[in-house]
Write a sequence for this structure.
């Protein structure tokens, strides 16, 4: 080779050229794909919200089947009637609720700062269902999801997702056998918003008891399960002013 | 393999068995432990590594006469990281469901020591075609072991394969569970992968004694 690659000048030039080439390649790609990625994320959020209110394509033995992406936007507009924002104890109708970043808002709420918490009101079998977003932490990283209740505070459906829970253990919170157990449980216990506990000791693996505020935990994922319990409790605490108004109406 | 000379074919075939990156060179163990609790994750990780490894080895081989030796490790890292980001972004845009399954695993590819190992040991000193074969071969050797481990861990730990129950229903006590069989929860946690790797190494060396190292 004619070039002396051992020279310092060459090394510096090589480093600069490499960084510029790689940097512009990635920047070019990121800006080219960002619209599609944002669209995918929007569809996913719509699918998750609809799933949590029981609007999905599940069959009795199937896994989690969302409304397909090509019709989800239409379905979302049809089934979600109103969007609200809960801020400072006040509920306001606001169609921007969907675009709020739940992670940021819940973090702000926990710190006691001003938070804008989104609420989605949908319709199912002629009744209103109230879908609330959740955000918390599992064993390794963030967990989040949605929970929907009717006016009697009975859970109509939940959706959980996670960033990095253990595959085969904590990651199973997003499978049907776990999420389906929440349906029909009440989030109220003797007039307080006690939520639903993911319990290792309720001796009810088939989840036949719907009055106990408990669902059966996944063996080997205690901390993820505790995270789910805590996340539901936090969510109810945040949304209590709103839930009170529904319950007393 | 009429397409390849015998030497080239060996580049490709050796890492599958007699020079396997996991069982012989003991590289890439971290991801072999972390992601093999399920067969699906093992498969997806294998495919991703095959892509990154094949392309990465080609890129490094093309640049091998230009990369200053003082910063070659950083240059290699940039190549892996770039490829991984490209894979991640493209999947997010066009295969969103798949990208969610992969989530953290894609990032983990950057830390896979097999990749840096092959860049450093092979692609920096060999031509493009041979580097490509070496990359694909090593990634396949890695993938084969990952899939074997994933198969046993998911089967024994959860009684399923690719998430489909194959041994009956553990809660309703049907199939094998009717006879008192229980899933072994230990297989799901990472140490079980070490034991499975150990058994694979043991079986492989007992069948091919030439692989046993001098004590």
């Amino acid at each position: 080779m004619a070039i002396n690659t051992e020279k310092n000048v060459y090394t510096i030039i090589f480093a600069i050229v490499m960084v510029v080439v790689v940097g512009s390649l990635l920047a070019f790609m990121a800006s080219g794909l960002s619209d599609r990625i944002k669209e995918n994320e929007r569809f996913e959020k719509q699918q998750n919200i609809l799933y949590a209110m029981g609007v999905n394509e599940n069959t009795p033995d199937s896994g989690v089947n969302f409304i397909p992406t090509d019709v989800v936007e239409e379905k979302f507009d049809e089934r979600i009637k109103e969007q609200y924002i809960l801020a400072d104890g006040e509920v306001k109708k606001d169609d921007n609720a969907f675009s709020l970043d739940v992670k940021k808002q819940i973090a702000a709420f926990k710190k006691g700062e001003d938070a804008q918490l989104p609420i989605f009101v949908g319709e199912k079998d002629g009744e209103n269902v109230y879908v609330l977003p959740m955000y918390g932490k599992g064993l390794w990283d963030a967990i989040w999801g949605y929970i929907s209740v009717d006016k009697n505070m009975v859970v109509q459906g939940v959706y959980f997702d996670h960033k990095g829970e253990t595959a085969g253990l904590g990651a199973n919170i997003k499978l049907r056998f776990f999420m389906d157990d929440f349906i029909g449980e009440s989030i109220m216990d003797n007039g307080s918003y006690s939520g639903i506990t993911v319990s290792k000791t309720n001796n009810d693996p088939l989840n036949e008891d719907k009055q106990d505020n408990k669902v059966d935990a996944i063996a080997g994922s205690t901390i993820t399960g505790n995270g789910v319990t805590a996340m539901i409790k936090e969510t109810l605490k945040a949304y209590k002013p709103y839930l009170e108004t529904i319950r007393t109406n | 393999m009429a397409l390849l000379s015998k030497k080239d074919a060996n580049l490709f075939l050796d890492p599958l068995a007699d020079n396997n990156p996991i069982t012989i060179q003991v590289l890439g163990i971290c991801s072999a432990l972390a992601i093999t609790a399920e067969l699906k994750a093992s498969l997806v990780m294998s495919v991703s590594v095959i892509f990154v490894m094949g392309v990465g080895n080609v890129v490094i081989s093309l640049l091998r006469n230009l990369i200053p030796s003082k910063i070659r490790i950083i240059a290699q890292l940039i190549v892996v990281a770039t490829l991984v980001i490209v894979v991640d972004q493209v999947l997010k845009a066009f295969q969103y469901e798949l990208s969610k399954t992969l989530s953290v695993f894609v990032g983990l590819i950057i830390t896979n020591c097999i990749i840096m190992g092959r860049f450093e040991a092979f692609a920096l000193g060999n031509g493009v075609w041979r580097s490509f074969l070496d990359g694909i071969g090593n990634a396949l050797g890695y993938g084969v072991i990952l899939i074997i481990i994933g198969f046993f861990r998911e089967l024994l730990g959860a009684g399923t394969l690719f998430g489909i129950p194959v041994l009956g229903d553990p809660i309703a006590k049907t199939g094998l569970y009717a006879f008192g069989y229980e899933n072994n929860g230990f297989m799901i946690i990472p140490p079980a992968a070490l034991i499975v790797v150990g058994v694979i190494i043991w079986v492989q060396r007992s069948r091919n004694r030439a692989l046993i190292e001098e004590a």
Remarks:
- The mean pLDDT of chain A is 89.
